[in-house]
Structure prediction request, 569 residues.
Amino acid sequence: MAQSPELYDAILNGNAKKAHAVTQAAIDAGVLPMDLISETMVPAMDEVGRLFEAEEYFVPELLLAGRAMKGAMEILRPLLVAAGQKLAVRVIIGTVKGDLHDIGKNIVASMLEGSGFEVIDLGADVSPESFVAAVKEREPHIVCMSALLTVTMPAMKTTIDALTNAGVRTKVKVLIGGAPVTSQYAKEIGADGYSENASGAVSLVKNLLAVA
Amino acid sequence: MDRQFYLDLAARGLRMPVGTDLVMNEESEPEKVRNNGAALGRVVVRSARRWGTPLAIPLMDLRLEKMDLLALAGIAVTDAERFHFTALLDESKLATLCADQTVALCAGSVARDEALAYVATQQDLIPVGMAIGPFSLTTRLLADPITATALAGSGVQPEDSDEVKLLWQCLRVSEAAVLRSARSQIAHGARAIMICEPTACTAFISPRQIKAGSNLFERLVMEPNLRLKAVLDEAGCDLIFHDCGELIDPMVEAFANRLHPVILSLGSSRKLWEDARLVPRDVVLYGNLPTKSFYSDGAMPIEEVVRRTDELIANMKACGHPYIVGSECDVLFVAEAQETIAKKVDAMMARVVPQAG
Prediction:
């Protein structure tokens, strides 16, 4: 049972205004931010993922749920920072160099954030050097790369090579995704994982890091 | 043109990829060809002749209408792909962007039109135009189009959300831009136009919302495309409708029955022989081999291409619906995989033996 059924439903129904309001009400009533995240928000996003896998939800529902989650996190994040708490897993995400398509990447970022991970979105057309710099500076656990075009996919390998050459490859797990990408391609270029959709990406991150 | 022309092509066993990009990249300086009408025209003709099709399919460059539209807003071609509208458009800007006037087109659009005129000089070829569909262009004008669409689909009204209002504004200017493109291509000789609506799919328009009563698919996709179809009909230009996105049956039915294109081109997520029951017999089904995966021998070995081609042909013959074997979308050139892609296109083509006629 979720700690805040109203917040759970607001996320499930993609109602950002309500999610924001009930989160504020819960905080005002003394509920701890981390409890709201772990006992209500993460289970809600897990259910969203389950409904997506069951083809009851589609990408639009994922995005609306992620948006509702984000609305709630806007209230909680400053409180977590003030309390010296931080989210357990940090993810860096970006669309690779030469590729301006960011919709798929945004969906994955939204779902990851909604699942309680700290997400640093580098945007689209991200150079290998920028990925390397972000890994050095932000020390993430996971690097996610997206490409929509077959012509930009090779930049995924270039980026992995750049991480290796910079000596940071072993410090992160690298996940890739995007319309033309396959698990075979992930193996070929030395990525740690591939997912064909946003919900799968969340499961993959959890599995790779053994996050419950 | 007579719809029977396309049915006859199907009956004769025509097969063809949308593969002009592959042929263009055989040139020493392909990017120069892209913006040179005469050179591009020669490439389009060479592509049609290579695959033995009278339909001269151009590049599937779905950036052009956005470039032309944004030029009206003072956005440089070089910045067009990254640009998104983030603030509501005032009436003056809307009027400018919707203007029904001849405007200076970007170099790529000029070349596309000149290439059409060149193809039109070839007696044995049908000049085919190409344009992004109004809804797909709309999604390229917004930074977060799925959320805006999802909000609209959930019942949020424009007066309650700037995101939703901007969505409708962008649809309005997109429709105008696509109409300008279509008219320009018709004026340069296009006898058919392939309208591409890849984002008119379940990733953008939720089947759950449709089931709950949302009329969003109708308003965002069908209505502007029906108006576009009317313009094509009036000009005697045929509609080839392409959507390689994930679709549900009612979407396929709406495209096939209400837009009633001469050819309906679908992505590899669909089984054409199952879709045949949704499609009138006078609409040729085109596609839909998974050419997006051709670059990878691991993901799509040549044996699998052969197997899928044979499966498609056998099932289409069994269902008796007119069809043309082809690609699920544009077969894009990939530098590192040029040879493997070409081999698979050849393998796909070799499985169909066209009949004389």
Observations:
- Strands of chain B lie at 15-18, 55-56, 126-132, 192-196, 238-243, 263-266, 284-289, 323-330.
- The mean pLDDT of chain B is 94.
- The first helix of chain B runs from residue 3 to 11.
